[in-house]
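Collaborator request log, item 7. Partner lab (contact: R.S.) asked for a structural prediction of Mitogen-activated protein kinase to inform their binding assays.
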Amino acid sequence: RPCTGGRARPAALAARMASHEGGGRRRQRKKTGTLEPAGVHVWSAWPLPQRYELRSLLGSGAYGTVCEALDKDKGRMVAVKRIPRIFDDLVAAKRVLREVAILSQLDDPHVPKVYDIVVPGDDPAHFSELFLVMEIGDTDLKALMQTDIEFTEAHVKWIFYGLLSGLRYLHTAGIYHRDLKPSNVLVNKDCAVKICDFGLARAVGDRSRPVTPAGSLTRRGSKGAVVGKDVGMPTSVSRAMTKHVATRFYRAPELILLQDDYTEAIDIWSVGCIYAEMTQLLEGARLEDRGPLFPGATCFPLSPDLVRPCDGLYHSQGRREQLNVIFDVLGTPSDDQVQQLDREDAQTYIRCFAPRKGMGLQRRLPQAGADAVDLLQRMLRFGPLDRCSAEDALGHPLLADIRDPSSEATAPEMVELDFDRKQNHSEQQLRDVFAAEIRSVLSGMSKVSTAGG
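Returned to partner:
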């Protein structure tokens, strides 16, 4: 179908996806220990209004379970996300609150819409579980990449263009997604893209300097030896931004190295990794060779080797250590780039790695064209200040034949979450904020939804 600006999308993906899971709809993700046994549909007893007819299980993870459902009142398929035992973990509860608050303030075709919020018993003051009714996608990039189909260059470019357009919108709204990966990119049969799962997202328009736990990286001793002892904690500040975000394969170097004041460049790195992976969908790449660009097995200090978790020098020599996997492709950073790191212990740790040029992205991704490699080189630079922005990426020659700037939305204002200005909330305080947020969202939808219909 034509896009907004009149430039034709490639032929719909329907034919290519027809053999994927019964026609393209996302199906249950297999995850040991999280999904009910075959034939036992626990989700069918969810306390939802009668308008929602649950059809199938789409997936399950740490923070909830997602089912496909028919909204009989609207005549459309939706995704219903059940989040149980919300207040068992107050940190997790605040993440759910952020997701609800952020999604309710975003309005872009590349972000799933929240259609409804269901509180069982219509009791916001005492609820323990929550149901989010959201826009659904046909499949996700991870599922597509695991399917034995090939895409044309036009298909890959359109999907990538949609992903970049959505990311640009998020960044103009002051949102860092912080967990971009193929499974969080929904793709429809017409190549439309939606960025999902905002459980780790943060609104950072008004953030102050984040706290980083010192001493997690190595430091240099009095005689130049690399050691792993604590170097003391920084002065307390008013707000924290956790560094343990983004899945390892898509985690930017500054997150790996626990840098303070990281920026939206962490999302650019993740999207670069995703696009590199997408090029493996092109003709000439074997199914068995598809996978992450940087498939590290450990990631010191956040995801270290269990045998020697505090030994930075040991990790710098590990061939499956995440930074080594990155350096094998991109090469080790220059002295000038290392000097950009704001932590002395991080600089010391980087200098532990054996210097190398790296094989280069073209050799690593032989099926990628010259323009694709050039843009990836701009997105996957070690220094966040050296990386291009989403706006820059959209203006790259790679996308010149399909880009339509008039279709790229800009957020009218930065998203700000007042409750995030307070670092520690009690359960009752979180309940109060949840109740206010739910009332605000439902009021904005001009409806009230209860478990009784």
